[in-house]
């Protein structure tokens, strides 16, 4: 070796650079797209638990203190609608409220304009009115504004009314709860059969998180809860479960037979799975959000605040919450549950012990304290062991597997192509 080094110095030879060390660091979007495992999600799960816990605490506090704004289908009441286009021009909500107060001696619960242009209508919501009060209000509205019918002429028939009893709202609530329970039971059965009980527990906890946060957003902002909201809520729970299953499927693929290797721990394999599904989750969410936004634009600018708006609103909130929970809540919770098992704990200890041994060998080789074997060895074997790079403590995110160039016999490892000479 000394003779070889002297010859290299005399000939001016330069040692080849380390290709792995010379590899440039990729940017944020490249790492996000390739899913190299560079984003530490599982390792920072305590932070995500704290963020998720804070969100849940705010939502629960709002639901307990502020409650919800229920629609007429849940609370019961009377709704009167009339075209905004009248003989004297477009009517305003303040004018309608004044007529309501003067006629019935009390204020309506809400008066809103739905839609725009010629299709705009004024919707009046109040507590349950008797038939006489409803007819009196219709007459007063027609005499003051003379709304135009479909033929463009003033018509009293253009003013419609509908009444919903509180019993009907209770029936809707009961059926919604039954549908929710059935959905959760079927989801738990499917995930337990398809995966394992830990994944089922994590998935159900994620669904509960999505349900609480979505309901909490409605409570905090004051959105009106309608039957369309309940339908949309069941829809976004299905989306959340779908996104969670995608991540769990990749976790199962990466951790299959993990106990037979000591390269990565279970948590590191799960973190790699989350990174590998980042782009898929983001793309799925964007594809889901775009039609929802289009639906909201149509509902607001063309049809006004109605059933479509309620349905689109809860879906938009649910997709955002479901995307967050599937990445930053479901998989970290799964890892926390699995790390309580003896199999994962013992495997993690093996990986840590292997890395400690590799670090100790690397330190000994650097300090020159490596002991010399008592048995005589060949010069090639000694050179190979001395020049070999010690294994890293932890695989670098996105690092490609490096093929060893030497073996104990001093020959190049791998298959040799005898045809290329």
UniProtKB/TrEMBL annotation:
GO biological process: intracellular protein transmembrane transport; protein targeting; protein transport by the Sec complex
Chain residue ranges for the region called Disordered: 347-421
One Pfam family it belongs to: SecD_SecF_C
UniProt entry tagged with the keyword Ligase: no
Subcellular localization: Cell membrane
TM helices/strands, residue ranges: 47-65, 176-193, 200-221, 227-248, 286-306, 312-335
GO cellular component, one term: plasma membrane
Keywords noted in UniProt: Cell membrane, Membrane, Protein transport, Translocation, Transmembrane, Transmembrane helix, Transport
Membrane topology annotation: Multi-pass membrane protein
GO molecular function, one term: protein-transporting ATPase activity
Start-end of Low complexity biased regions: 396-412
Ranges of Basic residues composition bias in the record: 347-358
Highest taxon in the source lineage: Bacteria
Keyword field contains Transport: yes
Family the UniProt entry places it in: Belongs to the SecD/SecF family. SecF subfamily.
HAMAP family: SecF_B (MF_01464_B)
Purpose: Part of the Sec protein translocase complex. Interacts with the SecYEG preprotein conducting channel. SecDF uses the proton motive force (PMF) to complete protein translocation after the ATP-dependent function of SecA.
PANTHER family reported in the protein's UniProt record: PROTEIN TRANSLOCASE SUBUNIT SECF, PROTEIN-EXPORT MEMBRANE PROTEIN SEC
Protein name: Protein-export membrane protein SecF
């Amino acid at each position: 070796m000394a003779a070889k080094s002297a010859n290299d110095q005399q000939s001016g030879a330069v040692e080849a650079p380390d290709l792995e060390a010379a590899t440039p660091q990729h940017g944020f979007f490249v790492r996000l797209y390739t899913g190299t495992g560079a984003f530490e999600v599982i390792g920072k799960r305590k932070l995500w638990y704290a963020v998720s816990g804070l969100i849940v605490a705010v939502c629960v506090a709002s639901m307990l203190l502020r409650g919800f704004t229920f629609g007429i289908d849940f609370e019961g009441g009377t709704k009167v609608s009339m075209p905004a286009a009248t003989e004297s021009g477009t009517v305003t909500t303040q004018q309608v409220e004044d007529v309501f107060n003067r006629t019935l001696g009390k204020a309506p619960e809400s008066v809103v304009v739905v839609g725009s242009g010629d299709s705009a209508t004024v919707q009046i919501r109040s507590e349950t009115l008797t038939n006489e009060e409803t007819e009196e209000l219709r007459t007063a509205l027609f005499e003051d504004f003379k709304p135009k019918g479909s033929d463009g002429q003033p018509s009293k028939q253009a003013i419609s009314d509908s009444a919903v009893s509180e019993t009907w709202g209770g029936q809707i609530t009961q059926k919604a709860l039954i549908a929710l329970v059935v959905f959760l039971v079927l989801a738990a059965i499917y995930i337990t059969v398809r995966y394992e009980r830990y994944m089922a527990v994590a998935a159900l906890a994620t669904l509960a998180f999505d349900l609480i946060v979505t309901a909490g957003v409605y409570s905090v902002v004051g959105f009106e809860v309608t039957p369309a909201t309940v339908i949309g809520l069941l829809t976004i729970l299905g989306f959340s479960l779908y996104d969670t299953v995608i991540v769990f499927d990749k976790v199962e693929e990466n951790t299959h037979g993990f106990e037979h290797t000591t390269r990565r721990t279970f948590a590191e394999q799960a973190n790699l799975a989350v990174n590998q599904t980042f782009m898929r989750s983001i793309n799925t969410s964007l594809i889901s959000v775009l039609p929802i936004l289009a639906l909201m634009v149509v509902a607001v600018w063309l049809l006004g605040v109605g059933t479509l708006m309620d349905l689109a609103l809860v879906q938009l909130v649910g997709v955002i919450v479901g995307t967050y929970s599937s990445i930053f809540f479901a998989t970290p919770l799964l890892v926390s549950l699995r790390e309580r098992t003896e199999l994962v704990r013992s495997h993690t200890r093996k990986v840590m012990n292997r890395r400690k041994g590799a670090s100790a060998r690397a330190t000994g080789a650097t300090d020159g304290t490596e002991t010399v074997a008592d048995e005589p060895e060949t010069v090639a074997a000694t050179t190979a062991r001395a020049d070999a790079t010690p294994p890293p403590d932890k695989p670098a995110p996105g690092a490609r597997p490096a093929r060893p160039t030497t073996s104990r016999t001093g020959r190049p490892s791998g298959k040799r192509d005898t045809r290329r000479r």
